[in-house]
Amino acid sequence: MKDNIFLASFISPHTQLLGSEFQSWDPDTLTATMRFTVKRDVITARGGVQGGLVAGYLDDVMGYAHVLSTDGELAPLTLELSMSLLKPVREGPIIGKGRVVKAGRRVIYLEGELLSEDGEVLARATSTNIPTPRPTGADMGTT
User: Fold this and answer.
1) How many alpha carbons fall within 13 Å on the CB side of residue 118?
2) Which CATH superfamily is domain 16-133 in?
3) Local structure of residue 134 (DSSP, 8 states)
4) Per-residue pLDDT band at 1 (split at 50, 70, 90)
5) Cα separation of 138 and 112, whole Å?
6) Which residue, among 43, 58, 34, has the nearest Cα to 111 in the 3D structure?
7) Alpha helix locations (H) across the chain?
């Protein structure tokens, strides 16, 4: 498992907005697991998270999977993301799982799921990406 100092170098400014918390990395299956705290601020009048923001949670956990699979050298730049919303994503904790399906020199294929704490699948996504050098804190306007 990656150490906390290694993982802390991946934190991006959007992490606080999403309530992202890294949970685990499985190098055998190339799967990252994260816990998100869905905040009331992202809930619509219908009681669930707005769809574009659901995509953000999925994109985040899939991106972590790719970054961790390259030991922090590369980060995916999303070209296409396809998502299915299966159940409403509600306020509170959810689990995200992101996996590298295939990573080539020019194209990366990722998949992800959001689950309730009891394991019910809420949303699924796949994405096509290009590998790029991972931005540093200076690149993102942070230290």
Assistant:
1) 1
2) Hotdog Thioesterase (3.10.129.10)
3) P
4) very low
5) 29
6) 58
7) 4-8, 14-18, 51-69
